[in-house]
TrEMBL record:
Organism, as annotated: Paenibacillus glucanolyticus
InterPro entries hit by this protein: ATP_F1_dsu/esu_C_sf, ATP_synth_F1_dsu/esu, ATP_synth_F1_dsu/esu_N, ATP_synth_F1_esu_C, ATPsynth_dsu/esu_N
Predominant cellular place of this UniProt entry's protein: membrane
Subunit structure, interactors included: F-type ATPases have 2 components, CF(1) - the catalytic core - and CF(0) - the membrane proton channel. CF(1) has five subunits: alpha(3), beta(3), gamma(1), delta(1), epsilon(1). CF(0) has three main subunits: a, b and c.
Protein's recorded name: ATP synthase epsilon chain
Length: 133
């Protein structure tokens, strides 16, 4: 089975760097399965799980938006934050989810920017909870 180098990078660290058989991401237009030899492209990502396959093993990552860049020699996922399942603090994600939900449910006039912010925080928290479980 052919492989390609996958790097998952955030501003803080290199989260992952391995030769993989395939990567599945959720781009802005939907799910994308990327195999070695794919044509080069760049596309923004949704806040969604990324699944990496090596042989029969499938490893999930929580990736909070960003971009995927597919090149001849490697695939780079660049995100504001990304975690492997084992790195996720479930209690923290559940607390973040609750905070975001409280903000979204708050009565009264709410700034549109604050609302959007809470929505994104909720998406990040739910993504982490999904991967952690
Ligand atoms: P919180 O409100 O809990 O800080 P957040 O979604 O605002 O969550 P981010 O700004 O996306 O957090 O991430 C900040 C840093 O904290 C990143 O390095 C990210 O990997 C890490 N991080 C955030 N939430 C968790 C979590 N539940 N478990 C492990 N690491 C986390």
């Amino acid at each position: 089975m052919s492989t390609i180098l996958l790097e998952i990078v955030t501003p803080d660290r290199l989260v992952y760097s391995e030769q993989v058989n395939s990567v599945t991401v959720r781009g802005v237009e939907g799910e994308l399965g990327i195999l070695p030899g794919h044509i080069s492209f760049v596309t923004p990502l949704q806040i969604a799980p990324v699944y990496v396959k090596i042989g029969n093993e499938r490893t999930p990552f929580a990736v909070q938006g960003g971009f995927v860049e597919v090149r001849k020699d490697k695939i780079v996922i660049l995100a504001e934050s990304a975690e492997r399942a084992g790195e996720i603090d479930l209690e923290r994600a559940e607390a973040a989810k609750e905070r975001a939900e409280t903000r979204l449910n708050a009565k009264g006039r709410q700034d549109e920017v604050d609302h959007r912010r809470a929505e994104l925080a909720l998406q990040r928290a739910m993504n982490r909870i999904k991967i952690s479980n």
